[in-house]
Design brief:
single chain; alpha+beta; 1 helix; signal; NlpE_N_sf
Length: 142
C-alpha cells in the first residue's frame, strides 16, 4: 500500500510542477488610444509562488496625467485557474497598494495535442477581481 501511495503522490507532484512551469514568467499588455493615451500592465509570476504587478497609465487630459500602481503577493494554480492573494501585513506599503485578493485568471495556451495551424497566444485572462479595471483584461506572455 505504501509504494502505491508514494507513486501516486510523485506523479501528482510532477503534474503540478509541470503546470506551474508553463505559467511562470512575464506577462505584458500595452493599450493605446487614438488620442495617444496609453495603458500598460506588467505581471511577473515567480517560480516560488509570488507575483509582482505594475500598472502604468498616461492619459493626456488626466489629472495627474501619469499614474503608476503596484501590487504583489502570492499565487496558486488549480485546473488552469490562477488565484491571487495579497497579505495585508507583508505585501502592502507606500509603493504596493493594489489588493489582488479574490482575483482569478485563466491560463490559456495552445494544447500540445492541437496540431492545427491556428496561433493561440499564451496569456492570462482575468475573470474576477475586486480591482474593477482588471476584470476581462487579457495579458500576453512575453
Amino acid at each position: 500500500m505504501k509504494p502505491i501511495f508514494t507513486i501516486l503522490f510523485l506523479i501528482s507532484s510532477l503534474t503540478l510542477f509541470s503546470q506551474t512551469e508553463n505559467v511562470v514568467g512575464n506577462y505584458k499588455l500595452i493599450l493605446e488610444t487614438k488620442d495617444s493615451s496609453s495603458f500598460e500592465y506588467e505581471l511577473t509570476l515567480n517560480q516560488d509562488g509570488t507575483f509582482s504587478f505594475h500598472y502604468y497609465s498616461n492619459i493626456k487630459q488626466g489629472i495627474p496625467p501619469e499614474v503608476n500602481k503596484y501590487g504583489k503577493g502570492n499565487w496558486t494554480i488549480k485546473n488552469n485557474v490562477i488565484s491571487f492573494l495579497s497579505d495585508k501585513q507583508k505585501d502592502f506599503d507606500e509603493k504596493y497598494t493594489l489588493d489582488f485578493t479574490n482575483t482569478k485568471a485563466r491560463f490559456v495556451t495552445k494544447s500540445p495535442r492541437d496540431k492545427s495551424e491556428e496561433i493561440i497566444k499564451t496569456q492570462l485572462k482575468f475573470l474576477e477581481s475586486e480591482i474593477f479595471w482588471m476584470r476581462r483584461i487579457d495579458i500576453d506572455k512575453i
